[in-house]
Specification:
The chain is built from four helices and two strands. By secondary structure, it is mainly alpha-helical.
Length: 97
C-alpha cells in the first residue's frame, strides 16, 4: 500500500483523494497543499473549496513551498479559492440542492 506522501505526489490528473483528518487541521493543510503543488507543477487548474481558516493554512503551505508558482497560478486564475459556506449556499434553493 502506498504512503500518503506517494499518494499525494504521485496522484493521476483527474483523480480525487479523501482524507479523514479529525482535529488535525495542520496535517490536513499540509497534505492538501502537497496535492495541489503536484497539480501546479503539471500546469493544472485547481480549485480549493474550504473554510477561511483552512484556505489560509493551505495557501501558506503552498507559498512556502513555491512562492512564485503559487502566486502566478492565483494571479492567472489557475488556482482559485472559494469559501465553503458561500459555495454551498450558492448551490441551494430554499435550503435544498
Amino acid at each position: 500500500m502506498a504512503s500518503w506522501e506517494e499518494l499525494l505526489i504521485g496522484s493521476d490528473p483527474g483523480k480525487h483523494l479523501v482524507q479523514l483528518y479529525g482535529e488535525d487541521d495542520r496535517l490536513l493543510a499540509k497534505n492538501v497543499s502537497r496535492y495541489l503543488a503536484t497539480g501546479l507543477r503539471r500546469g493544472e487548474g485547481l480549485i480549493v473549496i474550504a473554510t477561511p481558516e483552512h484556505i489560509q493554512a493551505i495557501r501558506c503551505h503552498l507559498v512556502e513551498d513555491d512562492r512564485s508558482a503559487a502566486l502566478e497560478a492565483e494571479a492567472s486564475g489557475r488556482l482559485v479559492y472559494r469559501d465553503a459556506a458561500d459555495t454551498l449556499a450558492s448551490l441551494l434553493l430554499d435550503g435544498r440542492p
